[in-house]
Amino acid sequence: MKAVWNNTVVAESDNTVVVENNHYFPAESLKKEFFEDSIAHTSCPWKGQASYYSLSVNGEQNKDAAWYYPAPKDAAQNIKGYVAFWKGVKVSE
């Protein structure tokens, strides 16, 4: 699977985990040079508190375009250390 934004592959892995129709990529598959920590947080009743990354590619920024659960609840332990995308990031094979 590949995650592409602004015509650039920002993550690529053969080992994604699908939860609620989102592909979660292992953290080591991220191309770290495109990721910046965000102060944003949201909460999911069964997964826990999500943290976000913004993407910066070719001088453009996509704020809070990736999320992850640093300390997921028990029901979501399978996505600990994994990152998912939205906000126009195309995920495909």
TrEMBL record:
Q: Which Gene3D superfamilies match?
A: Domain of unknown function (DUF427)
Q: Which domain of life is it from?
A: Bacteria
Q: Where is the DUF427 domain?
A: 1-87
Name of the molecule in the record: DUF427 domain-containing protein
Organism for this UniProt entry: Hymenobacter nivis
